[in-house]
Predict the structure.
Amino acid sequence: MKPLRLFTISLLLLFTGYFVNSQNIGIQKNNPDFLEYLSSEEIQTGYVPLPFEMPTTPVGTKRSGESFPSQFDSRNVNGTSYILAPRNQVITGPCWAFAATDVVQASFYKKGYQEGYLSPQLLTNCHNFVYTKTQGGNSLMAVATFARLVGPAFENAVPYDANETACITTTKEDFPAFVSNVHMINNNIDAVKKAIIDNGSVATKMFYDVAYYNSADKTYFYNGAANENHGISIVGWNDNMVVADKGYGTPSASGVWIVKNTWGTGFGDGGYFYVSYEDTYVGKEVFAFTKRIDKNTIDKVYQYAQHGMTSSVGYTANEPSYGRIKFTTTEREKIAAVGLYTYHPNTEITFWIYEGADFSKLRYTSEAEVIQYGGYYTIDITAPIYITGDFQVIVRYKHSTEAYTIPIEQNFPDYNNATIQNSGVQWISSSGSSWIPLGVDTSFKFNLCINAYTSIPNPPANDNVQDAVLLNTNTVYENFTNAGATVQANEVVPPYNNEEASCYTQNSWCYEGGLQNSVWFKFVATNSVVNIITEGFDNQIALWKSNDDNAENLISGNTSTYQLLAANDDASVSNAFASLYNVQGLQVGKTYFIQVDGSANGAEGIFSIEIQDIPTSINSTTHASTLLTPEGELTQEIKDKVNYIEVFDVSGRLLQILPKNSSLSNSKLPKQQVLIIKLHYADGGSDTISWLQN
């Protein structure tokens, strides 16, 4: 049975039809069957109607030139089965959870992860809605539960027990992965077939009454108007199968869905039966779970709408509507993904992430994307966005023909008993600049369905200067990273705090945010002159000398205990990898420290590093920046003086002699290799510089 009716008539009236207020905000009406279900005193179990009417999925869901076979069965696709045998729910109520976990299992199998049964117990006992285990649920409840990072769990980690109602504590070790990108498909046979081919199975609902079941051929057809009462999954189809007449009418055409039931293998055809395409419910309101998420990429979810979408609001069709939400991290965290619902198929989505409680620090802008199906989606953030404290996500929704595009969570005490937040953390807008607050203390008592997923970064082993990795000279070291690196208190940093700081000098960094995510290396000098080269991502490096070779000096704040020897951000205009050329005056046997940091406001990446000894026979005291343009070419003043040019490799071997007025970039010099360029002037003088040909 259902809980006691708690809502008021005014609430029902508000959400039964469209509501437009003085600020021109409209709201999508709720599903009448859902409202009737909530208001009914009749005991009902099984499948709960959705709080909204699922929009019809438009045509055009096939791939270009795609056609579907007349028969398809995910239990046998070229000899491979993506479906496990039907299980028995034992009691009334949990059908929806069995169907949802069966569908996710099939989707994972299609992706090559054959990990066994997934647990319906976690859904039935931990969904956070008001229903008990025997009162039922729906696929949307499964979506919301998974979006909270609750499951899916391995069956052997959370075994199903029909009599157990407690929600047990789980960890990520109990999950194979997370799941998202849930397509909602309604009244579109081709779209359902495509989803089955792509994902193995889909979840749907039905009205089941044994009177409409033909035990002889295991077929079923219901075309009445009673509310749905059972959750099932579809694993295939047969366009040619005919459903026999049981005295309640027959379909107008052949064609059935192959349905996996939740009553064990003793029911029907080994636990399966065949339902007409023309059934009132089966295949008309479908959920496909399409995305597997590596559980190690996400640690937390920030959300206010814990029960997911119940309706949507907005302004005007073919005009944008905006939702804005503010969260606060509890520690330094990386934004891994943004999660959001779409109500209408073919909604265009763009979003922005801001650090802080205002709009002064934009950290991310997504590409505009048209999402083909209504449903729930997580969009990965590949940029390194680390946040401590407040951050905001703004989502722009737009649909060519629909006005109410911003998904919301309402409070229905007999369904979700949702906690609507106080104002100050959620807003909507028609312009993206003037914002209307939402919250329990406002006229708009609902939550936005926008989630943010974060990961807790594990810093590299050489994150701190005390843990600097010891390098040998004349060796290329690969596969280092600064991903997840931090900045120590009082950590040294080269000059950068002015816009005149050049990107191409050997004594400063660009004006790009300063120190962000540094890692440390060290080496013992075996020569008085070295080149230090990093490649792989946009980085900035610095070379430091410390009294008594003590790493602690570099985080002491005492400037008398250390010295900056060189710093570089970009090797040239065309090369954003940092390099230090001809660092001279090193003391053989002394330890020096190399700081590698992400440039461009904290870039992350994999990189290589090399320390090259430069033979003293070709050393020079001339600084390269006085001879070369930012593009790495000789300045015109120097060209006018040069008589000829000798080119050596770092071992001192002569490679070429170039005539006067030669262009270094146009010469046939080795690429991506440090070279020693000796400039011979007409007056008999010379200069020697190191140079990297890009």
Observations:
- DSSP finds eight helices and 38 strands in the chain.
- Residues 1-17 have pLDDT under 50 and may be disordered.
- The chain has four domains: 71-289, 297-455, 465-613, 624-693.
